[in-house]
# Entry
Amino acid sequence: MQTKLTRCFTDSAAALLAAMAAAYFVCNLVNINLVQPREPVFMISTRALFWVMGASEAAVALVCIFARQAWLKVALVLWLSINLLVYRLGLQWAGTHNPRGYFGILADTFGLSTAATDTILKALLLYLLIGGFLLLLWSWLQKFTAKMEKALLKTTCAHCGGHIAFLPQSLGQKIPCPHCGESITLEVPGNLKMSCVLCGGHIEFPGHALGQKIPCPHCTKTITLLKPA
# Structure
């Protein structure tokens, strides 16, 4: 499920970023003869700002399309969205509490109001920021959970045969079995041995496999792995 969500997010991010990059490029080309204001953060013309933003968004869109590593795509989208957010905060820090004036030429090029243009840019930023953050967090949690599962030790209850997983630091502790409630000591069992009830063949298996049904390696009949009497 995570793979499908990641692919859906990176594909949609690539399409949105490509569209925004094209909008910035078209705006600059259409209005090449107009004198544009200087923005207050980097002190460059709005035209130069649009070239930089368009190039950055186009580059990330290309990575989302052609890169194979899903985490790289999501990380770059999140990196770009954080930079866009920091830039907006920089505008406020520079005293520009309403950045619509700097995107007015973009709005005029496509026949939109400055309010609508600003809303679209904010929605795009929130989508990329929240989506990228949540997917990276989900990926980290899955890797952490998988790592924890690998670190767990496994044993079986001597009373009911229920499977129990526990952390290595709990080795030797006495706990009530979560299945039958009887008191047990957490320990790693060695291999158990039994004889096939159908052919008498000897079978050796790890303790955590107790109770599982397997084909007998001697007669191939299905048997249940039981604790030796």
In short: Residues 15 and 131 are 15 Å apart (CA to CA).
